[in-house]
TrEMBL record, chain A:
The gene is ccmC. Keywords: Cell inner membrane, Cell membrane, Cytochrome c-type biogenesis, Membrane, Transmembrane, Transmembrane helix, Transport. One of its GO terms (biological process) is cytochrome complex assembly. It comes from the Bacteria. It is a multi-pass membrane protein. This is Heme exporter protein C. Required for the export of heme to the periplasm for the biogenesis of c-type cytochromes.
Automatic annotation (TrEMBL), chain B:
Residues 33-149 are extracellular. Heme binds at residues 126, 130. InterPro entries: CcmE, CcmE-like_sf, NA-bd_OB-fold. This is Cytochrome c-type biogenesis protein CcmE. The keyword Cell membrane applies. The gene is ccmE.
């Protein structure tokens, strides 16, 4: 009969299954981020060229990874929603978007600070930075579509198409440093031949990366639960108002 | 009336037509941009001064060894090379800390008629390799030891 995905797509099942996960994932996020920050700031070496400023990487790189990953998830959920009309996919995609925008802006802001101390400028219109700015605008546009259109089905369809078309920007961001000459350096961790970074730097980087993922997971689950609860709330609110008004009218 | 199954198939068909078409359009425009635009010129691909005119361009390469000099009034002179060709650069101001001989830079400025590149800004580049300083030191010492033998 029904496949496992269909069962989880039921909002009530989703809530029942994921509610107990929020607390442990949230605790994991706090622990990983604290451990990553400590190792990144105090227990890892400076870089041979960049010195202490390399520590900005532990905030910047996971933020940029999350910015791309979140957009990929939104585009995937939009595809599912567009074809199979799953309300849960719409809700989760919508609730992920502000986090994606936050990660993108964090990556741009920390990149600007890092750029100032290493390159000598906060910003340059190279391919990587420009495509990241486009990603921020895509997120903003996606959120705006949800805000402007009142009907949830229309909003989901319109925002979903924007998300799917915008996904073309993801490979552009990833490969911008390979396809074009750029000020931004090429990939260090995810590349052929393995990471060109010592283990003492990879450790805080991955602690932070998993911390970001856990933070993202916990917040998305909480936001989705709230959004699903709110969907039911208006009906109750209206009926309670009517009951209060009823005696006065009679 | 279309059944839900038919509607779903119609929506899938819509996506299989629209998404690849959009991706293809994006790829073609990027390809066109790549053909006509450059972010930075390497010394060997830098056009002649007459061709560039007063246009501001970027020049990317390595600071050639033994050419970097900074006068007391912050006038910086060095040569940028890509192995095949080299271009003399002048710059007034304070260089980013990471600018050094044999390291990558990007200079933004104008090529003067006499072939000297006058930079408004000099940016330091760093590559994708990270290392702990102790490791670098150990590697250098090992290399020196080998050279002595």
């Amino acid at each position: 009969m029904a496949n496992p995905l269909t069962i989880l797509a039921n909002p009530d099942t989703f809530k029942r299954w994921t509610k107990p996960l929020i607390l442990p994932i949230g605790i994991a996020a706090v622990v990983l981020l604290l451990a990553g920050s400590f190792v990144g700031l105090f227990a890892s070496p400076p870089d041979f060229r960049q010195g202490e400023s390399v520590r900005i990487m532990y905030v910047h790189v996971p933020a940029a990874w999350m910015a791309l990953q979140t957009y990929a998830l939104i585009a995937g959920a939009s595809l599912v929603s567009f074809i199979w009309r799953h309300r849960l996919a719409d809700v989760v995609a919508r609730e992920m978007a502000p986090l994606g925008l936050l990660f993108t802006l964090l990556a741009i802001a920390t990149g600007a600070l890092w750029g100032k101390v290493t390159w000598g400028v906060f910003w340059d219109w190279d391919a990587r930075m420009t495509s990241m700015l486009v990603l921020a605008f895509l997120y903003a546009g996606y959120i705006a579509v949800w805000q402007i259109i009142d009907n949830d089905w229309t909003a989901a369809k319109t925002a979903g198409i924007l998300a799917m078309l915008g996904a073309v920007n993801l490979p552009i961001i990833k490969f911008s440093v390979d396809w074009w000459d750029s000020l931004h350096q090429k990939a260090t961790v995810i590349k052929e031949g393995g990471p060109s970074m010592p283990a003492s730097m990879l450790l805080p980087l991955f602690l932070m990366a998993f911390g970001y993922i856990a933070f993202f997971g916990a917040v998305v689950l909480m936001r989705s639960h709230t959004a699903l609860a709110r969907k039911k709330a208006p009906a109750r609110k209206v009926s309670s108002v009517r009951m209060e008004e009823a005696p006065a009218a009679s | 009336m279309a059944t839900p199954f038919e509607k779903r198939r119609r929506r899938s068909l819509f996506l299989t037509l629209v998404l690849p078409a959009f991706a293809g359009a994006a790829a073609l425009s990027l390809w066109a941009v790549t053909k006509t635009q450059v972010y930075a010129y390497a010394p060997s691909s830098l056009p002649a001064p007459a061709e560039l005119g007063d246009r501001e361009v970027r020049l990317a390469g390595l600071v050639q060894e033994g050419t970097l000099s900074i006068s007391e009034d912050d006038l910086v002179v060095f040569t940028v090379t890509d192995g095949a060709a080299s271009v003399p650069v002048t710059f007034e101001g304070i260089l980013p800390a990471l600018v050094a001989e044999n390291e990558g830079i990007i200079a933004q400025g104008r090529l003067q008629p006499e072939g000297i590149f006058r930079a408004e800004t000099v940016l330091a580049r760093h590559d994708e390799n990270y290392e702990a300083p102790e490791v670098t030191k150990a590697l250098q010492e090992a290399a020196e030891k080998n050279a002595d033998l």
